[in-house]
Design brief:
This protein is mainly α. The chain has 19 helices and no strands. The protein is globular, with a radius of gyration of 20 Å. The N and C termini lie far apart (about 50 Å).
């Protein structure tokens, strides 16, 4: 395991640095590192690391969501309002509809299987999007109109909506019926997650303040450990309550960090955000190398041009969905184009659930996995490069 971790960190950082010097996003190098080191290429990673890959990726995602929450100004998010809510489900719905309409003709699968494919491909990758939005917020780029805040909030909720739909369509494809209860769980899980996180955020703020008043100063490093521990528990609670009460652990993490920022002094929240930023340097490498390791390049080759064509059609229709979300706002054409670009990348969700239909024994499982793999390889770099190259040109810097 130690050798595998050494390879993940050292080779991942090296390739990331090489791509960075080429003025390309580091994550492309990290994804390629994972593909090359992974079980479907050189197979240099220990099975014990791969067996906990999903947990490690989730831990990395929690770290960046904590930093996001500590950087998010709720007052700015209130200014956005309606578009932020719509971004959580409208673009994904448009993309799923695109697969439902066109995939049966392109791949010869049923409508239900096409909808299942759409639910696998419909989620934007918070791991690609959120770190960039946090960076733009820190640079005061686009924050006057709360564009990074809107995209970050939408991307954080988007996954929950899509995964619930995936579960529903998977049941239908296996011969089950539509589960209305599952669909209702989407808003319930978001609301309960936000409430639970807010309550814990206030409780932690109160605890830190009381300790300070009693001159029992808690170091920021210890606060980081406490926040990480509580966040891991919040995500675990989601699993414990599965089938009983729908609660989104990741939304709870963002909510907790946001309330902590709102109640704490600017100095404290900034220091905590900086510390999570340092943790993200290591977490980012682990996350994207392991996402790459989950990619079976053989399925990419089998997918062919038909998969590329389908993905491009779906992304165009998804872009219409994003345009619907920002319609009627004060955003100009360039800012709306940036929102479209930000909602392109796929990675974490597709790596996590892309192989589930194949494992479930569905006839369409192989083609669904093939398209999911192709989408990661195409859209993660495309979205990352697009955001990196357009944010300074399309968004206004606040003075």
């Amino acid at each position: 395991m130690l050798t595998s971790l050494a390879l993940i960190f050292l080779v991942g950082l090296l390739t990331g640095s090489i791509f960075s010097r080429m003025n390309l996003p580091k994550i492309i190098g990290m994804l390629i590192t994972g593909i090359v080191l992974g079980p479907f290429a050189l197979d240099l990673l220990d099975p014990s690391v791969l067996s906990i890959s999903s947990e490690l990726r989730k831990m990395a995602l929690i770290i960046i969501l904590l930093k996001a929450g500590l950087s998010l100004d709720l007052a700015d998010l209130k200014k956005v309002g309606r578009p932020a809510i719509l971004m959580a489900f409208v673009p994904a719905t448009f993309e799923i509809l695109a697969y439902t309409m066109f995939a049966p003709k392109i791949f010869g699968i049923t409508r239900v299987e096409a909808a299942l494919m759409g639910s696998v491909l419909g989620a934007v990758s918070p791991a690609v999007v959120v770190p960039r939005m946090v960076e733009y917020m820190e640079q005061k780029v686009g924050t006057k109109k709360a564009i990074p805040q809107m995209i970050m909030a939408g991307a954080s909720c988007d996954d929950i909506f899509v995964i619930v739909l995936f579960t529903t369509f998977l049941g239908m494809a296996e011969g089950g019926a539509v589960n209305i209860k599952s669909l209702l769980n989407v808003p319930i899980s978001i609301i309960l997650g936000a409430v639970l996180g807010a309550a814990l955020g206030y409780a932690l703020y109160d605890y830190f303040e009381r300790a300070y008043e009693k001159k029992r100063y808690i170091r920021n490093s210890v606060k980081v450990i406490i926040l990480l521990g509580v966040s891991f528990l919040l995500v675990a609670v989601e699993g414990w309550l599965e089938g009983k009460v729908a609660v989104s652990g990741l939304i709870a993490v963002v909510s907790m960090a946001s309330v902590l920022k709102m109640k704490s002094t600017v100095f404290v929240s900034k220091r905590l955000s900086e510390k999570f930023g340092k943790l993200w340097i290591a977490a980012e490498v682990v996350l994207f190398v392991l996402v790459g390791a989950a990619v079976d390049i053989r399925y990419t080759l089998e997918a062919g041009l038909a998969a590329v064509f389908m993905i491009l059609i779906a992304l165009c229709i998804r872009a219409v969905g994003v345009a619907v979300c920002v319609a009627g706002t004060k955003l100009n054409a360039k800012e709306r184009a940036f929102c479209v670009i930000s909602y392109l990348p796929k990675a974490t969700v597709q790596a996590a659930i892309g192989s589930v239909p194949l494992t479930a024994g569905l006839p369409s499982g192989k083609i669904i996995l093939s398209v999911a793999v192709m989408a990661i390889i195409l859209t993660a770099p495309l979205g990352a490069i697009g955001m990196d190259y357009t944010h300074k040109k399309f968004l206004e810097r606040d003075v």
